[in-house]
Each structure stands twice: as C-alpha cells, then as structure tokens.
Structure to design on (570 residues):
C-alpha cells in the first residue's frame, strides 16, 4: 500500500484535472507566446540589429526562449504549490477527505508532485513546439530542455508547497509572487545573461533554483554558448543543486503539511 | 462478548494552553451506536479526530480495533468510514466520481468499486444524480453523498461528526432514516451531536460531554430516568416571573428558570399544571412534554445545550 498510495493520489489529481484543465490552459500557453512575440521578436530585432550582435553569437530569440522555458516551469510549478494547496487545507478542505482514508500526508504530497511532473512535461512540451514554430529553437535539440525545465518546476512546486503550508491565509501567497517569483523571473538570466547584473547582485544569482534551471537548459540546448553568456559551471553541479533542493523542499512540504492537517 | 472496537483510558488532547479533551474513558462495542452529546466546544470533534487517527493523542491511551492510532494509522483508517462536520467533497467531480476516487484511496479494485457505487447511490437516493457535478447538489444530497463515500470500503466503524447540523427538517429525517437502516444492518456507529432528539433517535448508548469532560454515560432512556423526572411543564411567564418562581419552588421538586420560560420537572404534569393554576400563577402559555436529553444536560451542567 505504501508504494501504490501516492499513485492513487496522482490518479485522483488526473481525474480532477480532466474536468478543470480548460480554466488554466489559455494562461499557460498564452504567456510564453506573448513573451516570445513582444520581447523575443520585437525587442530581439533591436538587440540583434544593434550592439547585441557583438555579444550574442545567436539570435536573441533563441537566448530568450531557452530562458522562458524554465521560467514558465517555475511559474507553473509555483502556482501548483500555492492556491490549490491552500484550497486543500483551508478552502475546500479536500486534503482532510484524502487523509481520512489509508492515504498519508506523505502519499498526498508525493502523488501531487508526481502529477505536477506530468502536467509540467505536458505544458513544457507544448511550449517547446511553440518555440520551434517561432523559429527560436528547432525541436531537436529543443526537447533536451524539457527534463531540466520540469525539474526546475518541481523544485518550485516543492518549495512553494512547503511555504504555503506555513501560512494562515492567501496574503502571504500574493507577497511570495510579488517579492519572490517575479524578481527571480526577471533576474535569473531569463532575459539577459547574469554577467550583466550589477556586481553586487551577480553572486546572488547562483543561490536561486531558477538560475540553475536556466543554465542547465541553455547548456543542453544551445551547446555552442560560452561565457559570459553562460557560466563555466558544470552541468552536473546545476543538476545536483536542483535535486538537493527538490529533496529538501519535498521533506519540508511533508513535514509542514503534516503539522497543518494532523493537529 | 467480543472485544471493544475502541477503548479510551484517560484520553487527553491539549492544544497549546487549551485542554480540549480532559482525561476521558469510554469503550465502544461492535454493533452499537455510540453518541457524544454536548455543546459546541465540548471536545466531541477532538475525541473523534483522535479515533480517526488524524489527531495525535496528547496523553492517555487509545486503541482502535486493538491497534495503536499513532503507529497503525493507515491500517485503522482502512477499516473506518469518516463523515466530517463540514462536507469536503470534490465539487468539480460528479457524484459517482467522488465515490470512485474514495474507493481508489482505499485501494479497492475497479470492478468492486463499480458495484459498490451502484449500491451506495441507491442507499443515498442519488442514483438519478450519479453524473451531476457535486457543486449543483442540495445540502441534504451532499451530506448523503458524504455518508455514502464513507461507506465505500465497507467500514467496520463509521464516525459521523454532527451529521445533520445545518440541514432542514425534511433532509434531517431522510438522513436519520438512512442512518437507522445502517444501524439495522449491524454497523457500528459513532455519532456526535448537539441535538438531543438526534441522540435519542440514533444512539444506543451515549456519553454527555461538557468542558472537555464526560459528565454522564448511559442509554438515552437510562440517562433521562436517572437525571430528570418523567415530565416537564414549560411555562412562559411575561409578568411577575420572580414571584411566580418563588411559588413554583414549593410545588415541584425541581424547577429550572430560563431566560424566557420556567421548566417545572414533575412526575405528574397534569397535577402540577392544575396546582399552578390553583395557586393563581398567571402564565402566557403552558406546555407539557416528556423529559428529554436536553433536560438531562440542563440538570448536569446547569446550562442549555443550544443557546
């Protein structure tokens, strides 16, 4: 039972998603399309025509697309750990229904994260196809970016879930996105290389999970890219960092949800 | 005699500085319908949550099916059916899907769940709504679905926390009827309620809880016989309440003045009522009824059950 229990949760998540996916699908796909159009194509033309050519050996659109991929994963993953989790223990209280059965809090978290991984894979695959249609990055090696981006998304699902479980109401969630996720989105190398950051800010970037996700995706997909557009850090370091944070985040999420539900 | 399904000894639950359940003892036997009667905040829900293994015991011992809730929670929950105070159904899913998911949580095989769903839809009178979204159901229907959901795994023990709170009288009676049927089929039920009529209807045996403690225990009939004379005369007195009370004290062994009326406990209501009028006490209205658990509660705690 201990092994299959998380799969039962995943199954239930899928059944609910089958009825609710329409609500999120537009925003999920529209956002990357808007970014690629406005900033990638619009601004990118300026970048490539101007001084940008001296620093970027590739089209800005390709640089941006490989940043938006893990950044989208971060946003999808974070949202997954925010409102649905608060609904689970505060608004709908469906988590209480789940743990009244043989399912444990651990099963609940693992099952949710398992489903989050599947949903991220689906969303990011569509995104990769959109990237190819924009002529930003061809499907191959574009698809290589999917696994690290999924991992990045999951790291945020875990961290944000753990954080949400410490909150009493949704004010904290709004602040998390305003002061946490949005700055990460802007300053983790998504739009411009981290080497462009002010000197005092630059050393902070490697502390954030999104930075490692972006680096990993770029090194895999745009293998010709060199410093200072990407760091000289090994891909294994990025991977190890993300895996470690995922494990810690998952353990915290289980512990904090346990504390929330089993009082 | 078979072993009790639940045994609690000195069972205590504390939250920071509040003691929600204070050293209570009780046993629940197979096939019985056991009630926790008490006002809000008496500790009923906390006790039931501990039995359901979703709330750690602070001190004392608790065994459910002979197992330890702290160590064998998964196993215990596999044999329980839980109906929480607030419905927590999946509103986006259909009636049948809600039952299906619960069956899967209990690790039941698909064909078995399918059969069980038909049986439970029939039991809960929801067959016609099987493919409706739960969001569209009435309060009574949601409650019946929550109960049906709790029965999907054919539990040995069903825990119902205030099953009819918030329902209209008609929905309540239908629910009582269903629970009574369940009882007839030999299910063991634990019911918490602050309605004395519900406790009288459904419980074979109950404990009265007040301020985290058990203050009385027995069958509804035995409790009423022990704590309250057979009949009650309820008098509404608009003017001269205090003077009337002074006179009434001499007429009956026990009276209970409430905010808007006086309860006069007696073994012969007709005689008492006649005496009241003979004494020239002016009442706005007089009602004669049999004693209920409400009177038991009032007697024990000095307070009304629902204020």
């Amino acid at each position: 039972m201990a092994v299959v229990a998380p799969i039962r949760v995943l199954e239930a998540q899928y059944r609910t998603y089958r009825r609710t996916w329409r609500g999120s699908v537009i925003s999920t796909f529209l956002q990357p399309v808007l970014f690629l159009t406005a900033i990638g194509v619009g601004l990118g033309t300026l970048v490539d025509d101007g001084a940008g050519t001296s620093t970027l050996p590739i089209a800005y659109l390709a640089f941006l697309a490989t940043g938006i991929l893990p950044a989208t994963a971060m946003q999808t993953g974070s949202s997954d750990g925010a409102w649905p989790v608060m609904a689970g223990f505060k608004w709908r209280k469906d988590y209480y229904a789940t743990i009244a059965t043989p399912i444990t809090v651990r099963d609940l978290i693992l099952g949710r994260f398992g489903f989050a991984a599947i949903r991220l894979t689906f969303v990011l695959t569509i995104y990769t196809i959109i990237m190819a249609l924009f002529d930003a990055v061809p499907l191959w090696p574009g698809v290589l970016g999917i696994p690290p981006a999924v991992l990045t998304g999951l790291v945020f699902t875990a961290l944000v879930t753990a954080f949400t479980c410490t909150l009493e109401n949704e004010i904290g969630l709004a602040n998390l996105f305003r002061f946490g996720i949005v700055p990460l989105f802007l300053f983790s190398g998504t739009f411009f290389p981290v080497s462009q950051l002010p000197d005092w800010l630059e050393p902070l970037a490697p502390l954030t999970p999104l930075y490692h996700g972006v680096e990993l995706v770029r090194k895999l997909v745009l293998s010709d890219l060199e410093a200072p557009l990407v760091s000289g850090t090994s891909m294994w370091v990025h991977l190890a960092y993300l895996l470690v944070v995922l494990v810690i985040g998952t353990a915290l999420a289980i512990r904090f949800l346990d504390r929330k539900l089993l009082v | 005699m078979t072993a009790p399904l639940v045994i609690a000894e000195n069972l205590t639950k504390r939250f920071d500085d509040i003691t929600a359940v204070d050293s209570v003892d009780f046993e629940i036997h197979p096939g019985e319908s056991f009630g926790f009667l008490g006002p809000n905040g008496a500790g009923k829900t906390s006790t039931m949550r501990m039995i359901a293994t979703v709330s750690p015991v602070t001190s004392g011992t608790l065994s459910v099916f002979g197992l330890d809730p702290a160590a064998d929670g998964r196993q215990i929950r596999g044999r329980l059916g839980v109906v929480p105070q607030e419905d927590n159904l999946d509103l986006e899913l259909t009636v049948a899907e809600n039952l299906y998911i619960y069956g899967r949580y209990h690790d039941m095989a698909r064909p078995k769940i399918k059969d069980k769903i038909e049986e439970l839809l029939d039991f809960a009178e929801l067959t016609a709504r099987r493919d409706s979204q739960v969001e569209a159901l009435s309060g009574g229907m949601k409650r019946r679905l929550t109960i049906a959901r709790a029965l999907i795994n054919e539990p040995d023990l069903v825990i119902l926390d205030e099953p009819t709170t918030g329902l209209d009288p008609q929905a309540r009676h239908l629910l009582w009827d269903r629970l009574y049927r369940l009882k007839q089929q030999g299910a063991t039920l634990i019911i918490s309620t602050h309605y004395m009529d519900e406790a009288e209807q459904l419980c074979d045996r109950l404990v009265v809880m007040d301020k985290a403690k058990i203050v009385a225990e027995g069958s509804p009939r035995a409790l009423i016989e022990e704590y309250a004379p057979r009949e009650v005369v309820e008098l509404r007195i608009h003017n001269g309440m205090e003077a009337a009370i002074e006179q009434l004290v001499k007429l009956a062994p026990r009276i209970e003045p409430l905010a808007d009326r006086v309860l006069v406990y007696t073994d012969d209501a007709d005689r008492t009522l006649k005496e009241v009028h003979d004494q020239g006490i002016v009442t706005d209205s007089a009602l004669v009824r049999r004693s209920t658990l409400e009177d038991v509660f009032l007697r024990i705690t000095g307070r009304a059950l629902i204020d």
